[in-house]
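We read letters as residues; the fold follows as tokens. A sample entry reads:
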Amino acid sequence: MSIVVVVGMQWGDEAKGKVVDYLAQDADYVVRYNGGNNAGHTVVIGDEVFKFHTVPVGVLNEGVTAVITDGVVFDPSVFVGELEGLRKRGITADRIKISGNAHVIMPYHRLLDRLEEEYKGNGKIGTTGRGIGPCYADKMSRTGIRVWDLVDLDRFRARLTQCLQQKNKIITSVYGADPLDEATIYEEYAPYAEVVRPYVCDTTTVLVEAARECANIVFEGAHGSLLDIDHGTYPFVTSSHCVSGGACVGTGVGPTAIDRVIGVAKAYTTRVGAGPCPTELKDAVGDRIRERGREYGTTTGRPRRCGWFDAVAVRYAARVNGVCSIALTLLDVLSGFDMVKICVAYSIDGKETTEFTTDVDALWRAVPIYEELPGWKEEITDARVFEDLPAAARRYVDRISKLVGVPICLVGVGPRRDQTIVLDGEVLQM
């Protein structure tokens, strides 16, 4: 048996989908434990590209049960669309399970998300507008609609009536927008309920029993540690627990069942939306990284902010996640640079520190202190063992491992499943 948590160590978009897909080839269950369809995971197998937003990437592997758990906020319209897309490509996706405890994203969540961002003006966070935050807010205020409610249409209509009365008061009185129509929402969501119903179950019991029966389970994290609601750069964060502990909170599987945590980090830094990013490059170098790395959001298409690798931030993420090993992705993007840099410390108000801070006001003032290393000219996308990499690329990988204080188990040298260098097969063995 092996139970592994895969978690992002930066601000998301670290290519977790590629790492989860690699592990899923030998897994029995792949489990989404947090976030919603504001996250996007991309998997490339040969010439085929798959983009996921709600369905776990393990669905691509025959025999894998893909599980959407309590900690996820669930947009049924997105799920139904993904399901149809997979079936058109010959993937039946019959082995999906959805927690009845997951909260449902409603049209008023999406509307309020946009209205709230507009109201904030220059202080906006940069949300995707998918209704994620408002849905989690309803969950915490105990006013949400859960999947159990959705698939019981009588109960759903009653909950919708109750919730919409309150939401329409906010929409009209606070934001001056037009109210939403209850009948229209019900007519849209009732067909979704029919599609979703066969997949709904008590996923906690399913996973606890699977663990007891020694199944191989991969917990697929969404977003990144620095976007965690508690441990990230608040308020420029998402609304869920992105760290490895979220796997327990979001699934009901206890922490003693987890065997190891694999952190995923890019060979450089990216961030989407507002908030501090100390190593961001607002110049031709940043543009070059963005274009080589195809750094545009899977969900929104927004260009990502790019910069050099931030060892201060990733070392912090390694600590809060209890990471035992790192999958370092997109190393190929840095090919062609004469010199590459790693941020090894910050200067904040003239004081040097190697500790990351989640005090956003201080982080805005952080000036990165860099260590420069020789770059490499060679393209490395055909490398399959570590020794195939240029000496400068190997030194770069080794230096990151030393600065973060965690060994590296895998290096990604391209988007495809086969463009992977395994450094520690035992860590990646299910």
User: Anything to note?
Assistant: The mean pLDDT is 95. The CA atoms of residues 64 and 152 lie 28 Å apart. The chain has 13 helices and 20 strands.
